[in-house]
């Protein structure tokens, strides 16, 4: 079992309340929720006919895409750093 303190916070994402439980700080969890809300609203502005489920899926797809690009960039930078050290 983990000894980490669990934090619980209720956040508002796209007009719906969700309770999030995690070991991150409440301010971190609030920031994550705010970013998800902003991304959902951005997608809705560009695609006003989409329903909530499609907005949520597109938000997830966009977020994973951004994550993968950052991972690729980090791996590239790690390789560059290895080359500089070697």
UniProtKB/TrEMBL annotation:
Keywords: Cell cycle, Cell division, Cytoplasm, Septation
GO terms, biological process: cell division
Localization: Cytoplasm
Signal peptide residue numbers: none
Subcellular location, principal: cytoplasm
Superkingdom: Bacteria
UniProt entry tagged with the keyword Cell division: yes
Physiological role: Activator of cell division through the inhibition of FtsZ GTPase activity, therefore promoting FtsZ assembly into bundles of protofilaments necessary for the formation of the division Z ring. It is recruited early at mid-cell but it is not essential for cell division.
Quaternary data: Homodimer. Interacts with FtsZ.
Descriptive protein name: Cell division protein ZapA
Organism: Bacillus lumedeiriae
